Amino acid sequence: MNPKIKPVGLARPRKELVELLRGTVLFSGLSPALIEKVADIAVLERAQKDAVLYRVDDPARDLYVVVAGQVNHAHGPATQARVLTKTMQPGDVFGWAALIKAPARRFATVTMLADTELLRISGAELMQALASDPEAARDVLARCAKMIVEDFTVPAWLAQVQDVPAGKGGSPMVQRQAAAGEIGAWEMFAYRLSKWAKSPTPYLMLVGFVLFFGAWYLLSEVFKVWRFASLPGPKTVLLEWFNPNPTYGMSLYTPDYYVHIWSSIRRVLYAFLISTGLGVPFGLFLGWSKNFREFTFPVFETLRPIPVLAWVPLAIVMFKGQESPVIFLTTLASFYATALNTMLGVQSIDESYPRAAACLGASKWQIFRHIVIPGALPFIFTGLQISVGVAWFSLVAGEMVSGEYGLGYLILASYVNVQYVVIIIGMVSVGVVGYVSSALVRLAGDYMMQWRVRELALGGGR
Amino acid sequence: MSAVLSQASQGNAHGGKGAIRIEHVDKVYEAKSGPVQAVSDCSLDIRAGEICMIVGPSGCGKTTLLNAIAGFHDITGGAIYLDGQMLCGPDRPKADPGPDRVVVFQNGALFPWKTNLENVAFGPVVQGKLSKAQAAEKARGLMADAGLAGVEHNYPGEVSSGMRRRVEIVRALMNDPKVLLLDEPFRALDQLTKSVMHEALLEIYYKNKVTIFFITHDLEEAIFLGHRVAIMTTRPCRPKKILEVDIPHPRDYAVLTSPRFRELMEETVSAVHEEAVKAFEAGEKEM
After folding, report:
1. What domain range is B191 assigned to?
2. In this structure, are strands A43-47 and A116-122 parallel, antiparallel, or unpaired?
3. Which residues of B touch A359 (CB under 8 A)?
4. What is the ipTM score, two decimals?
5. C-alpha–C-alpha distance, residues B231 and A371, integer Å
6. CB-closest option in A84, A359, A451 to B113
7. What is the pTM of this model?
8. Residue ranges of domains in chain A, CATH in brackets
9. Do B111 and A366 touch (CB under 8 A)?
10. Share of chain A above pLDDT 70, in %
């Protein structure tokens, strides 16, 4: 028992407490008789300023109503709450974790901002007291669920309130069950998806695509505007793409199509892994060591502007076989993008971070590991996103010259065979696969930089 | 939990550790336009366990002095001692940065990619003094004492600027430093938060009695907090006037309206103003 928190019995008239309970979000719908019942099980306690009532992960048994004073309610990181700290005033209810499904653990740390009086109500006793009237219990639980989501900004799937106590006709009030502690990746995804669907983003995206394809369709197929007339329209392309017996032998139904896509993906994957594995450490050293930078950077900067296509003949001479020259060409441009951004990332780190670390006793290597690498991460991931995009367009260039499979090869071969529809199928495929790959890189970046995601979320940036 | 704090501070409270002696220090920068004399023949004795406020116009060279003590750059003449041991001097122009002299930076230098708790625990962990778990335990105690319970697992970017400053000061105290070097730490805060931070700093100081070297250009802040206030000349930097603030500690905000406080302000405000005008006319860029 915390010595800073003491029960104070009948320090306040019961009538005042009943009035207070009636005024709370949770109990305002209850009949006078039930409010009396709740008041019966409530215990008035007095807590000193700065006393900690409970911490994140403590077992959650009781619910609290602030009677007088002020309380700081700070969510732990697991809640995903949008608003992290909240000041509770008289009449406010907190400690809702006592009413959620087991295992009930605290989601927040609660500290007294002043000498405070609280009404403590045991969650189990409350449910018992309400068992006689399932209708009222359902009302209280529904209000609690609403309060968790709206006042505490916690996602609804995370804190599911209990079922109505087993009285007569008590039906489960919450359909989906979720353990309070563990957050499934799937649930997280579903939550984000539903959030996304409610925002204007997907509809704006749709409008963009409709405008683009509409313009293309009108120009090429309806009005046949000069020059666009020879371009296959979107209708023609779609019909061919979804045709089980394609005129030119290439559609979603032909296995060859997937062989092309897979060869390209594999090459980009290898190239991306190689360029990241070499580019990130190279960039880190470029940024970190002045000497290293001074003797390598000029060479690097001389090689960088040379276009990938210029390397093609040499690549074929230097590397054996079909695959390695293409992978080499694809790696090249990605490597530059990754290395350059990583270097800029290291240089962007505020000078006071390594200084602070040195002050705190960190060695040179520890500064590199704890300051330089994480500090450069935002730039590194910008670099990786550019790098994966660059990989796709140098891949197509490489495949046009060498190789017998791949989307680039497909596009060139179709040009030679005058199959313009297939060219567009190949182009759109590169676009879609490229979009997905850079989205994956972005996702990985968000995963590794939680601190940044949360900072941006608080800044109100979208 | 306050046991952790007082235990941590014992060395500082009695032993008289943390005396800094600055002797005839010179610092000349090689700028593009030629050498710049930032500090010239600067001597200052800072007693162990005192709050010494350094006041001067922006760009006068006071941060240069702090950087020399912290070991961020070298000096070109003179010497600096900590408890009689030479930090830097003729044979060794640059001191080694270390956890006995921890800096709290002007714009804050909490690592944004570590949680507040990881930030506070950082020092002892990298020094290999405590295990991660032990450091977290100690950090949690110190944070609770400083009114920071509940934000341990938040990132610095998620809490208010006043809280960030407090976390940074607690991060410094985790190392039981002899000296805290504060470089205008509350400069970016609004007036109200600043006043809260002043009292918080004094509270921390009364528990720890660590020597505090505090740079500011705010005279009111200087007199309110300091045992002594050193008013520096504009570049090159050296003490122009040293004021003993004879208002007894512990102090609270009522001091600001006391007649003695007003007297001290009046005594010094002209000296500070004079230097500010000189700095303005010289058009020196802040370094």
Report:
1. 2-100+177-282
2. antiparallel
3. 70, 97-99, 101-103, 172
4. 0.87
5. 36
6. A451
7. 0.69
8. 5-176 (2.60.120.10), 240-458 (1.10.3720.10)
9. no
10. 89
